[in-house]
């Protein structure tokens, strides 16, 4: 085989695949964005044409993916250090940082303009603000500067149901902000649980997560406090315009489990955690994923039941 053939073969093997570019969009995070935005859109008190609804969710998803690509572009330096993120396309060398930046910017502009055209300008503006908040406020500023990074920055992941609601109605009301608050208050205990058993990653990368700046003991107490506040909010939402008996039943069970898990975490010491490789913390983290999904699923169920005159407290 000639040298030219060998070089060509090597270049082809090093070229990024479609899967590498898709991974830039953080598909797992995007799935949460899509689901919560869909619930926000369907829970709105107005009907939406299926084609417009599909377009709205598609462009919100693309906007969420654009945020992920821009996050990976900016965070490539710390992603290379962390075990959890070192295999991402940019730190792994599969995609160049400039390509991630270009893709993120292009998809950001495309998603915002198309959402505004498909639904209304207010929805497009809210999507633009969400992308800005996640990339600039959270990724570039909060993440590297304060242990409150995930508390304030969690707002970025809480906006999708608001965008979905505005896409359907063109207006604001208290209900989408209750969905926003549910995700916003859920984010800290969710990520702090992860930080408890991934502390070395954040320590090595110099990210001032609460476990790094204040230690695991303080983080455990924070998880319990935020879980109590979250439970009050989640149960109170049952008596709002998006709640009802189905939501209340689901929320009672989930919050009982979540509070129990947070209480168990709050009493554990380092020896307990290290002896079983943080099994309680890992279980709480997995439960947190189910917690948010089922709460939004219950909101969606109430919305569907209302179509048939069965949902809510009426």
Structure description:
The chain has 314 residues and is mainly α. The protein is built from 17 helices and no strands.
Give a brief outline of the structure.
This protein is an all-alpha fold and 314 residues long.
Distance between the first and last residues' Cα: 77 Å
- β-strand amount: under 5%
For the sheet with most strands, the description reads: none
Q: How confident overall, as mean pLDDT?
A: 92
Envelope shape? flat
Strand tally, please?
0
Fraction in helix: over 70%
The tally of helices reads: 17
Radius of gyration: 21 Å
Estimated structural class:
mainly alpha
List the helices and strands in order: HHHHHHHHHHHHHHHHH
Taking pLDDT < 50 over at least 5 consecutive residues as the criterion, the unreliable ranges are 1-13
Q: Which features does this protein show?
A:
single chain, 314 residues, mainly alpha, 17 helices, 79% helix, flat, disordered N terminus
Helix and strand arrangement:
Layout: H1 3-14, H2 18-24, H3 27-43, H4 50-74, H5 76-79, H6 97-118, H7 121-145, H8 149-153, H9 155-158, H10 160-169, H11 174-197, H12 199-205, H13 210-213, H14 215-237, H15 245-267, H16 270-275, H17 279-307
